[in-house]
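Our working data are protein records whose layout never changes between entries. The record below serves as our worked example for the rest of this section:
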Amino acid sequence: MFMKKFAYAAAFAGAVGISLCASAAAGQTQPPIKDQATYAPIQSIRYDFGSKSMSGYFVSEAARCVVMFMVSEKADPDAGSSATVTRVRVMLNPGQTAGLDSEEGRSLNFTCGEGATALTVDAGEREKWSSFKDFPW
């Protein structure tokens, strides 16, 4: 009888421990693994860059990449959310690039692929992009 109760208690404690670990891991934001990633239409795109967070997607419309995303301050999971969010829409022809910079020197560049079938996102330090002479800095 004692062993049966002990087994149930151990199983319950284990289940609680696993669920706590899983919820803590789910609440943590992971930085992108690659400096460059390519996305298909309507595939979720999410990056943290500096103190900002970006989430969005793109669709192919009239042979252009129509990129839609929200930019906000990175959320503190322990604090209440009072940050405002900005919605951004950008239309890119194949080969065109648009960029976002954070005040901490991190950047995201979005490049429309051939035929507007893919969107490439480059993440990195802003200095990495200073070699682009076509950008109107």
Summary: Residues 73 and 136 are 25 Å apart (CA to CA). The chain has a mean pLDDT of 76. The chain has two domains: 1-29, 36-129.
